[in-house]
Amino acid sequence: MTERIDGHTILIGLMAYPIRHSMSPTMHNNAFAKLGLNYVYLAFDVTNDKLPDAINAIRTLDMRGSNVSMPNKQKVIPLLDKLDPAAEMIGAVNTIVNDNGVLTGYTTDGTGFMQALKDENLNIIGEKMTLAGAGGAGTAIAVQAALDGVKEISIFNAKDSIWENAKRNVEMINEKTNCKATLHDIDDKEDFRKEIADSIIYCDSTGVGMKPLEDLTLVEDPTWFRPDMIVFDTVYAPRTTKLMTVAKQAGVKHVFNGLGMMLEQGAQAFKLWTGEDMPVEYIHDLLFS
Ligand code: NAD
Known about the structure:
The active site is at 73 (proton acceptor). NADP(+) binds at residues 133-137, 234, 258. Pathway: Metabolic intermediate biosynthesis; chorismate biosynthesis; chorismate from D-erythrose 4-phosphate and phosphoenolpyruvate: step 4/7. Its EC number is 1.1.1.25. This protein is of the alpha/beta class and 289 residues long. It has two domains: 10-107, Leucine Dehydrogenase, chain A, domain 1 (Rossmann fold); 110-260, NAD(P)-binding Rossmann-like Domain (Rossmann fold, 3-Layer(aba) Sandwich), CATH 3.40.50. Helix content is 37%, strand content 20%. The chain has a six-stranded mixed beta sheet, sandwiched between helices. A six-stranded parallel beta sheet has the order 9-8-7-10-11-12, with helices on both faces. Strand 11 (230-233), helix 8 (242-249) and strand 12 form a beta-alpha-beta unit. It is globular. Residues 109, 112, 133-138, 157-158, 160, 162, 186, 205-208, 210, 218, 234-236, 258, 261-262, 265 line the site of nicotinamide-adenine-dinucleotide.
């Protein structure tokens, strides 16, 4: 690392709280080193109250950009100069690019999800998806899938604080894309079963299955799944969630955790900052083998 840093090294940040557990610094710094790029990626504890100063520092220090994560993904929007259309629709930003003082906000969670499927040679364009969850990850996945040409999305959510956001997502997708989106109550199990049975892909973006809920899954019955479908959990710790176990019991061929999505959202940000393709397989092996 010290061999790489000199007077020309370009800084990229990660602004969130808490953030010290993040794998992003390891991912990006190893990718810079592998490609011989003179960048460094550092994590900063940034809460909402520090965010305006932190964003201004991107301009002041001529940083190339930053990732932002919770609690800043929505709050950062008014502090930027421009938004990518998908970020505007989703109402959240996870990547900022600084072009000579002009800050543009992007969101790469949705494109990361779509790319993770492409990496497995799986096509969901023109098909139907059932999606559990309409929070940050669920919104990004639904909007990007709709923009990319998924034909129909049935979104299931609990009648909790996210329900209004789920309603907004459905209205926005129906208004702005050719995809038909519908909203369903996740407690209506028969409706949930039927919509999954009619879909090529079931994706869970709720975090149920992640610690401390690692013994839980929203779908407990393997007969809800068909072997020819895709089951995707956005959770990547643990590597095999309860949902994935149920899907495997059903003989589902294409069962994924959120690792591919996590790597690809990073790779999309890497490309926006550097113009280069992240060596995804190398990073995957480095972090996870
Ligand atoms: P969020 O808080 O914004 O949304 C959570 C969603 O889950 C909401 O729709 C909520 O209604 C639903 N939910 C929560 N508890 C539930 C329960 N017990 N039953 C049914 N629904 C429930 O969270 P988020 O930022 O969208 O993250 C969700 C998950 O996605 C987390 O596990 C996170 O780690 C993961 N994630 C993964 C990636 C990746 O790259 N793989 C990226 C972003 C998020």
